[in-house]
From TrEMBL:
The chain crosses the membrane at residues 25-44, 56-72. It comes from the Bacteria. Keywords: Membrane, Transmembrane, Transmembrane helix. This is Uncharacterized membrane protein. Pfam families: DUF3493. It comes from Prochlorococcus marinus (strain SARG / CCMP1375 / SS120). InterPro entries: LPA1-like.
Length: 78
């Protein structure tokens, strides 16, 4: 089989990390969602509304988790 070396390398990379692009988009979307939720909770808190500590802890945890997944899932070439 005569494959172009660039195509072969790309296929090998995809077989080592399947659906990497989709995962990165998912992690970015979820971390952005958690960040927006955290921002809204912060604004509500500064405005004087009551924000439950449990909800705030959940938002912070989600943001840290998804942001760290974005960093962990990046390749060594990035």
């Amino acid at each position: 089989m005569n494959l172009d070396p660039n195509i072969r390398e790309k296929l090998l990379q995809e077989s080592r990390n399947p659906f990497r692009g989709i995962r990165r988009v998912l992690w970015l979307a979820l971390s952005a969602s958690a960040g927006i939720g955290l921002l809204i909770m912060g604004i509500r808190s500064f405005a004087g509304e009551n924000v439950l500590k449990n909800d705030l802890i959940i938002q912070i945890t989600a943001f840290v988790l998804f942001a760290s997944l974005v960093l962990i899932d990046r390749s060594k070439n990035d």
